[in-house]
Amino acid sequence: MSSEKVLNYTAPFKSFLDTSFFQELSRLKLDVLKLDSTFQPLVVNLDLRNIPKSADQVPLFLTSRGFEENNNRSDNEVPVRGKILNFNVLDDFRKLDKQHFLRQRALECWEDGLRDINNCVSFAIISFADLKKYRFYYWLGVPCFQRPSSTVVHVRSEPSSAYICTKYQDWFDANYSKWVCILNENEDIVNYDKHIIGKTKVLAVRDTSTVENVPSALTKNFLSVLRHDVPDLTDFKLLIIRQKGGSFALKVTFVSSDSQSSPSNPDMKVSGWEKNMQGKLAPRVVDLGSL
Amino acid sequence: DLPIDDIDELIQDMEIKDDYE
């Protein structure tokens, strides 16, 4: 693979919400939240080394433990923070402006990412629990955003040795909360630093996709923050690092851009609602009445 | 309580057509 190509992306995660998740949501709704319809925090530990062979991305597996602040992360697991907004009324769930909601979540990720590029990964769930029928309506979104200035206009495959990729894998293993790293002037792998990458021009990103040569759409978040942090950086090497093999390198060129919108009200395209079992961008329904 | 057919209709009603990818 050496020719120029368009940079495509896959969905970052595939969610699995098990029965215990809905049982805990029911318990919270009845015993704690009652009519309180505010965001509740969630956390998922991603297992990047045990991805089913047939999967195109890392599973986002939510159980009742997702509601626990400290849910005993295992070695090699990567924590991802999220939140759930459970509506009291089905009609409120239906009427919510879903695109506006996801854009708001993307803006939060963007602002978090400006403070620390590793913090621009999260997920959000909207739900309605019909506790009479034990039927749950829900929709999970992973905010992915791209600013016009971070549009990639030119991408070309670069050679990358297994030895180099293993070095990055080892770094990510040792730095489980990091999504991004760079090379410094001594060619050591170090934490992201906008002053250093402006000189060394090598960015490595932890990837959740398993599709050959196609990174996760979360890459757009990192590239948007990078372009904001280092506006003069137009050409750089992008390493897509996977813990289970399939890492690859790209030479990337950003679009020329003289103007950037305000960081507090950025112009950005947002995507990330998960498709349902029918392949539609629409909510899912789980009927646990028979249980 | 919604019958199953109405649930399908409700879900279809919420479908987003033009999500950016």
Detailed description of the structure:
The complex is a heterodimer of chains A (291) and B (21). Chain A is α+β, with helices and mostly antiparallel strands and 291 residues long. Chain A is 24% helix and 31% strand. In chain A, strand 11 and strand 12 form a beta hairpin. In chain A, helix 3 (98-115) packs across helix 6. Chain A is globular and about 60 Å long. Chain B has 21 residues and is mainly alpha-helical. The termini of chain B are far apart. Chain B has one helix and no strands.
- Cα Rg of chain A: 20 Å
Detail the poorly predicted runs of chain B: none
Overall pLDDT metric of chain A: 93
Mean pLDDT of chain B: 75
Keywords:
heterodimer, A: 291 residues, alpha+beta, 14 strands, 31% strand, B: 21 residues, mainly alpha, 1 helix, rod-shaped
Layout of helices and strands:
The complex is a heterodimer of chains A (291) and B (21).
Chain A: E1 13-17, H1 19-33, E2 40-47, E3 58-62, E4 77-87, H2 90-95, H3 98-115, E5 123-130, E6 135-146, E7 152-158, H4 162-174, E8 180-183, E9 189-191, H5 194-200, E10 202-206, H6 218-229, E11 235-241, E12 248-254, E13 269-273, E14 284-287
Parallel strand pairs in A: 1-3, 4-5, 10-11
Antiparallel strand pairs in A: 2-4, 5-6, 6-13, 6-14, 7-12, 8-9, 8-10, 11-12
Helix pairs in contact in A: 3-6
Chain B: H1 4-13
